[in-house]
Each structure stands twice: as structure tokens, then as C-alpha cells.
Write a structure and sequence with these properties.
- The chain has eleven helices and nine strands.
- It is of the alpha/beta class and 281 residues long.
- Strands 5-4-3-6-7-9-8 form a seven-stranded mixed beta sheet, with helices on both faces. It has a two-stranded antiparallel ribbon with strand order 1-2.
- A hairpin with a 2-residue loop joins strand 1 and strand 2.
- The longest helix has 15 residues.
- The termini are far apart.
- Bound molecules: glutamine.
């Protein structure tokens, strides 16, 4: 007879295994992967610690653990993540939405009138544009991405959130934005200096799309391109961008040189300057 594995048994085993592979929160990840597989939440999992796993459940779970042990991000393995309290599908073709980016959403909402048109440059999963449209019923959006793969995932997210009718998702480059004009342009562009890519955690470095991360020699390339196209804003329209650690001042200067006014910098919840914005006079 094969050995019986219970929920608690596999969680304990996985925690130790993932720790040995250098995964920081192995136990927590084990809980997420198993709860998702069994269709439970984490509390539900705790109520079923003694439940034996069926052979097919065990096989599917083992495959998840194997992927996580290779340092694939948890979110790609379960196929979704939460952003702005909404569920977004994610696959290896898109950047995993980060909690820091919710600060950009907050700052954008504070500046969005009742109706308007927004542009999300490098929309990826669509998390920024779709969160904003979810909150502002009379807005319409355009999400641009250079990756067809990302557009496919963003479209699936738009449909799942019931927002497909209010967003266009199109192939485009941040070097050549559509004419607009837009009342809001938001972007979380690639901003990691190319030389720093090698030092990122394996989850990011080896699994998230390079295109979503690589900000060129000094990490500021995308901001220069965006700053050069502020004529795509309506008069009074806002440009808001997420920035990397230590980039806020340089990006603020770029937006000032581009002629934007009412410049601001907003910290994330870890106290790191994270969002820079300004408006077209
Ligand atoms: N807009 C998406 C996000 O914020 C993708 C950004 C990117 O790929 N750089 O998660």
C-alpha cells in the first residue's frame, strides 16, 4: 500500500523542501499552492489538516512544488494574483502585479474626473488600466503593450472583470504613443538598470519577462521616451509613472523639463518614493 499523505503532512514536507531550495516563505507558498489546488482558502485548508490527498491531487501538487523549487514565482504556478482586491490571471508572459503599483492607482484615482480617457503604457496583465476602469464607470481606456502574449492575458482579464467593453488593448511601443489626447497617461515601465538585472531574485530574473524589467543602461530610458510625448495629454491631463528605488528625483526633473507642472512624488507603503506625476498646463 502506498503511503498516505495528509494535508498537514505534505505542507510540512514541502516547507522543509522549499527552504532547502532557498525559497523564503516555503510553508506559506505550500499553503497557497495546496489550497488553490483543492479549491479551498487557507482557513479551509487549516480545517482539513487530516484530509488524505488522492493520488491525482498528490501528483498535481508535486508538479507545483517542483516548479516552485525551481524558483518559479508562486503566482505563475497558481495562475492568478490579487491586485487592487481584484483577481488577475498571470502567466509567464506578463509581469506579476506588485502591491507597490497600487499606490499609482490611488494617485491616479485622486486625479480622475467623472469621465475621461486613459492610456496605460506597457499594460502587461492590464492591472493598472483595469483597476482604474473598475473604479471609474464613465472612463474608457487604451492599454498598450509590445507583447502579443501580454495583450492576450490582458484581454482575458478585461473579460473576466466585465470591462472588455471599456478598454482597447493594442500592440504598441512606448517610443511611439497614439495621438490621443488622453486625460491620463499611466505607466509602470521597465526601469531596472540593465547591469542590475543579474542581481535580481531568481524568481524575477529567471522567470519574469525581461522586456518588462530592462530599463536600459541607467534604467531611465522609458521615462525619457514618455517625457518626450506629453503632447498626447489633454491640457490639464496627468502623466503618472511608477519609478524604481532612487529614480524619483531624476524622473521628476525629466517631467519638469518636458513642461509638466504640479509635479509630485508619492512614497509607497515601505517609504520608498514610488510614483512621480505631473500635469500638462
Ligand atoms: N502595467 C503592468 C504592471 O504594472 C506591467 C508593467 C510592466 O510590464 N513593466 O504590472
Amino acid at each position: 500500500m502506498a503511503e498516505t499523505w495528509t494535508v498537514l503532512g505534505v505542507l510540512k514536507w514541502t516547507a522543509g523542501h522549499l527552504r532547502a531550495k532557498g525559497v523564503e516563505n516555503g510553508r506559506l507558498d505550500a499553503e497557497w499552492m495546496l489550497a488553490d489546488l483543492l479549491g479551498l482558502d487557507r482557513v479551509g485548508l487549516y480545517l482539513h489538516f487530516d484530509r488524505p490527498l488522492q493520488a491525482d491531487e498528490l501528483a498535481a501538487y508535486r508538479e507545483r512544488v517542483r516548479r516552485r523549487a525551481r524558483r518559479e514565482p508562486l503566482q505563475y504556478i497558481v495562475g492568478h494574483c490579487e491586485f487592487w482586491s481584484l483577481r488577475f490571471r498571470v502567466e509567464p508572459g506578463v509581469l506579476i502585479p506588485r502591491a507597490d503599483t497600487e499606490v499609482l492607482v490611488e494617485e491616479a484615482l485622486a486625479r480622475m474626473a467623472d469621465t475621461g480617457t486613459l492610456l496605460d503604457v506597457g499594460t502587461g496583465s492590464g492591472c493598472i488600466a483595469l483597476s482604474l476602469l473598475h473604479e471609474r464607470q464613465n472612463w474608457h481606456g487604451l492599454g498598450l503593450d509590445c507583447s502579443e502574449e501580454a495583450l492576450r492575458i490582458a484581454r482575458a482579464n478585461a473579460a473576466a472583470l466585465g470591462l472588455a467593453g471599456r478598454i482597447d488593448l493594442a500592440r504598441g511601443e512606448l517610443t511611439m504613443l497614439p495621438e490621443g489626447p488622453f486625460d491620463l497617461i499611466a505607466s509602470n515601465p521597465p526601469y531596472i538598470p540593465a547591469a542590475d538585472l543579474a542581481d535580481l531574485m531568481p524568481e524575477v530574473r529567471d522567470h519574469e519577462p525581461r522586456l518588462a524589467l530592462d530599463g536600459g543602461p541607467d534604467g531611465l530610458q522609458a521615462y525619457r521616451h514618455l517625457a518626450g510625448q506629453v503632447d498626447r495629454l489633454t491640457s490639464g491631463g496627468w502623466l503618472l509613472v511608477e519609478v524604481g528605488i532612487g529614480q524619483a528625483q531624476a524622473v521628476r526633473d525629466l517631467l519638469a523639463e518636458a513642461g509638466l507642472t504640479d509635479l509630485f512624488v508619492r512614497d509607497d507603503y515601505a517609504g520608498i518614493p514610488r510614483v512621480v506625476g505631473g500635469r500638462r498646463p
